[in-house]
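Appendix C reproduces, verbatim, an entry submitted by the partner laboratory led by Prof. M.T., so that reviewers can inspect both the input and the predicted structure.
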Amino acid sequence: MGKNVDEELKKALSSSALLEEEEKEELWQAVKTGISVAEKGGGRMNAKKKRPWVWLKYAAAALIFLVVGTLTTKEGQAAIRNLYDLLVPQKTIVEELEGEKEETEVTLKEMKAGYTIYFDENRYFIEEKEGYDIIAPLPVDGMTLSDKYFMEIRQEEDKSPEELATAKGLELTQRYEQTVGPEEVEDPVKGWAVRGKSYTGAMVLERYYYVDNTKGGSFEIRQMLTIEAESGHGARFNNMLGEFRIVEIPAD
């Protein structure tokens, strides 16, 4: 039962990142108390007639709350934690970098390509390009880092993660001294991965992850790093991917 509720929760609130912060807070409070928006007197929400799907999110959340209330304590708590993760716009995570644990404030970002991701606004920027999104370090002391360290996310239609990873693996063997994969992975995302390393010249690491986009295609996630930065920017990029969620973006 817990698994079914978790799936329904994700389905009902998959676009919650599109809510304004006030709406998220109101929804979260409503779910915590089991009170529907109508019972609270949602005058402010009545003015948002151009966004009727918001009402569906509130109604779904209230329904899920009632279902969760019938679960065992363990199942209910897990579902509530998942719901909170879908709603909270900012949170603190603990990252392990180069053997040291570090607390990091991260912010939720919803992208038009159909996914959400948490990232550290104090260290990185996200930019939507034509056909892909890029996440890269902010300049440090006037020095641009985005040409050496970056992560690109794009969608590939009509191709499975395994198919794309296999093709990319063949390509990387032509360019790198060492390649690993393609292989199925569970971390930092569930999908397929392949990577190549060069130990001469610039000593770079090029890493790819492929995730089913649930529409017959895949998300391709490309990371470019120096080998030296694998435990720094590389670890941070993978920590971001641990928060990668596919969402359904409603039409305007």
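The CA atoms of residues 19 and 248 lie 13 Å apart. Additional entries are available on request from the coordinating office.
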